[in-house]
Write a structure and sequence with these properties.
By secondary structure, this protein is an alpha+beta fold. It has a single domain, classed as Coagulation Factor XIII, Chain A, domain 1 (Distorted Sandwich). The strands form two sheets. Strands 3, 4, 6, 7 and 8 form a five-stranded antiparallel beta sheet that branches. Strands 1-2-5 form a three-stranded antiparallel beta sheet, with no helix packed on it.
Amino acid sequence: MKKLLLPFVFVLMVLTGWSFSDKPASNLRDLNLELAQSGNPFSFFNAHRQGRSAIGLMWQISSSDHVLGVQVQRSYDGEFFDPITNLPGGANKRFTWKDDNVFPGYIYYRLAAILTDGTIFYSEVEVVHIIQK
């Protein structure tokens, strides 16, 4: 039984992309590359710490013609994201937003662009580390 279990676990790890990495967001680089090649409307997305306990988000949309709005999403585990605000689309192509309500630890952010045809495109995932509040 043990001889069958080990190859099964190994194949499962390879197929799901799971690894033993201890670095947060270590597999996000591949995901971000896939997103960039998928026709995603985001030109760039950046999250950075502002002061001791706030996070500033900046992004640009390559073409705002078909973008109804953008939803900012946050996660503390990098897997399950919660919406924290919705911003309307419009002629503006550069956006900034500040998150003052964060807890210490690794905080993951992504954006969801809602297009006029109902399609939702997700930005790359950005990670910020807050040490103390």
